[in-house]
Amino acid sequence: MTNTKTDETTIVLRNDNGPVATVILNAPRSRNALSGAMMTALHAVLDDIAADTSIRSVILAANGPVFCAGHDLKEMNSISACDGHAALFAQCSALMMRIVTLPQPVIARVHAMATAAGCQLVASCDLAVAGKAAKFATPGVNIGLFCSTPMVALSRNIARKHAMRMLLTGDAIDADTAWQMGLVSDVATDDDLIIATDDLATRIAERSAMTVKLGKEAFYRQLEMPLSGAYDYASGVMTNNMQKHDAREGIGAFVEKRHPDWRHE
After folding, report:
1. Chain-wide mean pLDDT for the chain?
2. What GO terms describe the biological role, i.e. biological process, of this protein (predicted)?
3. Does residue 193 share a domain with residue 146?
């Protein structure tokens, strides 16, 4: 699926450039809020990418003055039944897990404010490049709705006391602070944000897709294991990795001082 429309009738766009897919939230008038429709569209695009072996890295970006304002509060307030709210939050959790389980690495390109579930979206990505003007906040506490699901991704990215400060105060942090805390992996000038993100995505796409997929899955699985179990699991992953063509090719190319010829298997 490749979509290059720029009007707001398509709320999620996908533009492919070789092995890099850029997925763009395209509802600027609603501040790219994660409405049910937005989450459905984004999840569908990610499912398409997961099945597309020609894509080896993904950039998640947004159009408009806000990266993502989190859940659509008007939509949430219009739902009266508990089951309706439960379904909405379950949909959001499934979307975040789709990012984590995607075979390809996902890089958030954050040019402006990412709040609440929008901050969760950034934290759920494997990497994040923030422009200097970007800001991040989990301000649910200010409106009586604690950012409990954003807390899950946030607390797995940054230290507990940093996470709790963001969650308890709702204060926004700037890009440099987000980098110091570990919420984003890179900070670029606003003028260089697109170039910096594209360069990172392209560099990753040049690696063996098999190796990157295997490594991404292993990274998240071992995080939740006790230390000894993590080593046992990771040893098994490396043993399996070593049997693959690309591992033998990569080691051979290194020894022979040549560029590897990846088969992505």
Report:
1. 95
2. fatty acid metabolic process
3. yes
